[in-house]
Structures are given as structure tokens and as C-alpha cells.
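Dissemination and training. As part of the outreach component of the grant, students in the summer workshop were shown how a complex can be specified as a set of sequence lines and then modelled as a single object. The example used during the hands-on session is reproduced here so that future cohorts can follow it. Participants entered these lines:
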Amino acid sequence: AAPVTMNAFELISTSQGLNLGSLFDR
Amino acid sequence: MGCFHSKTRKQFPGHEDPVLLASQTAFSVSEVEALFELFKSISSSVIDDGLINKEELQLALFKNRKKENLFANRIFDLFDVKQKGVIDFGDFVRLLNVFHPNAPQEDKINLSFKLYDMDGTGYIERQEVKQMLIALLCESEMKLADETIEMILDKTFVEADIDQDGKIDKSEWHNFVTRNPSLLKIMTLPYLRDITTTFPSFVFNSEVDEVAT
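and obtained this result:
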């Protein structure tokens, strides 16, 4: 529980919606 | 000419010539054809019309199509460069090209800037970043107090917004991601190296005589 040490973009980039790798999970 | 060869392609509207797409991207003809197998499966998941709509992209990304999702919308907008409301095969290949491990870093930086510049003003504004942070918290069911969110934004803008005008311009973004290369990790898909192995069935649907280019 230490997200404050991360910057906003590091946090945002953990979104599943931004992970295009899931397109390949067919 | 192999026994699977067929010259009749108009199965999907807007399906661009794989040879042409390969000439415009880092993909080989075989890889473009393998990507077409992936495209076909996504574009037929809700309506089998040879185009990917928002619902289909969301289904592929999240395995659900019910909830409106800001990030899925952003990715959709990046694919849908001509703002047609649907993604055709050419859009699909050209965008994935930027995610190729061998694509120029500069292209990845520019595309990531576009991803965060939601309203297309040429700046990443604090409000946009806040909106995305809140969307992330909703998605992950993580709870953070508003003042914690503001602290994260303060810290981020102190680091990224060099001229302290409250928004991040392209050169500040360039500088910031160069100092924080992990931010570009989402812009590379290692899967794209092995696309022909992942979708070997492209061989049976190939339309070019020589697929091993």
C-alpha cells in the first residue's frame, strides 16, 4: 500500500485497459 | 501456388492488401496475415462485419463489454485514427506496428503522449491525469483519498512539468519518459515477435504465393 511513491503515470500504466497484451489471450 | 491459395478476398470490407501493409510497417507479409487471424476473431466477437467496434475491443481487453471504460476508450481512439467509430484491419496493423519491439522509440513516445492527451490540445493537463487516476482506482477497486491523489499529481507535475505551467508539453513528456523508461513498457508488446507462431492458421488462409517473406 505505498502507491504514493509512484508517479501518476506509473500508476495509470498498470491499468488492464492499457495492456494490449490481453488482445493476444485468445 | 499452394492448394490453399485463393484470390477471392472481399470477405471483409476494408481489408487492405497484406503486401502493402507489410511494406508500410515492420511486419512481414506472413505476420500481417497472422495478425488478420487475430483481427478476425476480435472483429467477429459481437458483430461479424470485419470491423472492430468499441464493444468488441473492450471485450478483447477486459473480457466484458458492459462497463464503459476510459482506458478502453483511449485505446480505441488511438486505433481509430480517422474517427470512423470502427477499426478496420489497416488501422489495426498500423497501430500495432508502433507496439512492435523493434519500432522506433520516438514513435512510442509520441503515441504515449497522444494516449494521455485525451482532449488532443497538445498538452497533458493535470485534470486529464486526475481523471485517469480516478478511472484506475475504480477499475482496481483501490481507494485513495482525494488529498492523496492530489499529492501524487503534485509529485508527478513537479517532476514532469519543467516550466511549471500546469501542463506537460511534448518536449517535457519526452524528457520525462527518457528519465522514467518504465513508463514506455506498455508501448511494447513482445507477443508481436511471435505472431506467426501464435496464429499458425494464417498459412491456410494466405493469399500470397510466398508467405515466408
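The mean pLDDT of chain A is 83. Students were then asked to discuss how this feature might be tested experimentally.
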